[in-house]
Amino acid sequence: MPTLNRPGIIDILRGSFEFYRKHSALNWVMLWLMILPGIGLNLLKSLLKYGTVNVPNYQSQLPLRIVIGVGALALIIIVLWGTASVMVIGKRQIQNKAGRARTSFKTVRQESRILVGRLFFTNVIQTYTALYYSLLFTVPALMYLLIHPTCQIQSKNWQATTSCLWPVLLMTPLLIPALVYLLRTIFYGVIIATEDKAYREALRRSMEVTKGSLLYILTIVLGLAIIMYVPVLALVSVLQILAGTSMNLITSTLLSILDNSLHSFGCMLMILSVVSLYGILRDGGAKEEPKPLGRPKKGETRTKIKEVKPSSRSRSSK
Q1: pLDDT of the residue at 134
Q2: What is the tally of structural domains in the chain?
Q3: pTM, whole model, 2 decimals?
Q4: CB neighbours of 160 closer than 8 A, spacing ≥ 6?
């Protein structure tokens, strides 16, 4: 029996980075469909916080707030378009001759535009299903907080607050079914991009592929998330602390550019790694380890290839 070996976090991340280096279209996708829309979202948020929109007269600013809300929705759709574009390029990792064919940014935009609606509505189905499973935790937790007399007292007593929240924290294992469902349906986007399936069919296909590999998927996804996002969050948090009270619209914009650039690059590598992980699980997720050279160990047998000697007729003909 051959020994099975699955790639680790570093192997998957290294392969995704090498794939990124071979496809220049990913840089244009990251710039126009991820970084700039993300900066626009942060600018709208900063405008509401530091700009002239934040005034006491709410009714006079209501039309402008509606315009900002519509603009934010449009930018979110563009970011979703960027996610679909990364998946369209990244699917070459798990197809034949992956990495050899190069795709233009225009072709990627046109191909991924069709997937935006499918990704959005499939995500809606996944979210509502996860919320349905989370009712196992939400319903008893809310009932306890509403019925228990200590929780109804609005006081600053830390001991009372702690005694109220401890039972709720003990109920958190009831969230495990919802978390397991989210983990098992993590590949729905890759399936939409590679297998032309969508909505519940894509979610069911993801659950089929992840069956029996939850621990491996959890290890890879958590490891990638820590490597990709924790350093960026730490750096941006330190810069925000250093900015302190001098934070204004200009400072917030500069931090937004840095934050979105780093997060977009990490998000792109994360998507490529998830596509690669799906290919590993879909194809069995195993590779045969090469047999060591040299003399066989005690109790180990190896087949020998017999040399075919030329017959007497072939010798005479020569």
Answers
A1: 93
A2: 1
A3: 0.79
A4: 150, 153
